[in-house]
Design goal:
Elements lengths: L1 H4 L4 H4 L1 E6 L3 E6 L2 E2 L3 E2 L2 E7 L4 E5 L6 H10 L1 E6 L9 H7 L4 E5 L2 H7 L7 E5 L10 H6 E6 L6 E6 L4 E4 L23 H9 L6 H10 L4 H12 L5 E4 L9 H8 L1 H9 L2
Parallel strand pairs: 6-7, 7-8, 8-9, 12-13
Antiparallel strand pairs: 1-2, 2-5, 3-4, 5-6, 10-11, 11-12
Length: about 270
């Protein structure tokens, strides 16, 4: 299954980009669902003001990535942002064993059932503890929101110094131009990708409908409350795991996709 999801040659097709010089670096890779849907994946490295590094949704740890990490600082945090974004937790923890591993409830058990590497979780977000403290340095720079109403148990982060929202599957921003830019493959090619792209395009109403009627249907009210809290953050940029980075005016994109949920949250207050 994994071979159908991730590229066999990540060192050749990964795009390493300094999104914010000396502070945020993205690691963008092609990613296929069911071996056909051109989704794209992305890891993000944030350099805290004390020089330590926080890694979100880690992707393949290539030699070039290791070199980039060495240039940036010491990895202190490795976060699986939901129960799906965990494939590379093992290699990253093996390379940086002193880093704190962070993830949502259900993931430790899922990894054990799949016979993944044994990775000790320092912090697990749960429905009974949705806003645990990571540590003073991390908490000073990040807002975070656990969304247990999301089917993937999403954790969203806001890096306050750079006004950047980092999220995994909360919303997609298709097409995945950057993530497939070194493959020579059109990221919009194929009928399944075109259909999926129409549903996950932030410019159309279809992603709003997909999240409303599908993703959040199990607990729409709880989902809406989480979205409303995220909307209070002062972000201008958004880094999704799937699709292109929203470089500017990310708050307006967020509000357009979650308009119905934000209205629901208002009615309940």
């Amino acid at each position: 299954m994994t071979s159908k999801l991730i590229p066999s040659n990540p060192d050749q097709v990964m795009v390493i980009r300094d999104l914010v010089p000396r502070t945020i670096t993205t690691l963008s890779v092609p990613f296929l669902r069911f071996g056909k849907l051109k989704i794209g994946g992305r890891g993000t490295i944030v350099r805290l003001q004390n020089g330590s590094l926080a890694v979100f949704s880690p992707v393949a740890l290539t030699s070039e990535v290791k070199q980039k990490v060495a240039e940036m600082g010491e990895v202190k945090y490795i976060t699986a942002m939901d129960i799906e974004h965990h494939i590379f937790l093992g290699p990253w923890h093996a390379a940086y064993p002193n880093a704190k591993v962070i993830g949502p409830e259900g993931l430790p058990e899922k990894r054990k059932s799949q016979n993944n590497e044994d990775v000790p979780f320092a912090t697990v977000f749960t429905t009974s503890n949705t806003h645990p403290s990571i540590d003073p340095d991390f908490d000073a720079e990040f807002d975070y929101e656990y969304v247990p109403a999301h089917q993937n148990k999403e954790i969203a982060f806001h890096h306050k110094p750079t006004k950047t929202l980092i999220q995994a599957d909360l919303l997609f921003n298709y097409p995945s131009t950057e993530q497939f830019s070194k493959t020579g493959v059109d990221p919009t090619s194929g009928i399944l990708t075109k259909l999926f792209g129409a549903v996950t395009n932030t410019q159309s109403v279809w992603q709003k409908r997909f999240i409303w009627y599908g993703i959040s249907s199990g607990d729409r009210q709880g989902f809406a409350q989480s979205v409303a809290r995220i909307n209070q953050w002062d972000f201008e940029r958004m880094i999704p795991c799937h699709g292109d980075v929203v470089e500017t005016e990310a708050k307006s994109v967020f509000q357009r996709v979650f308009d119905w949920h934000l209205e629901l949250a208002k009615k309940s207050t």
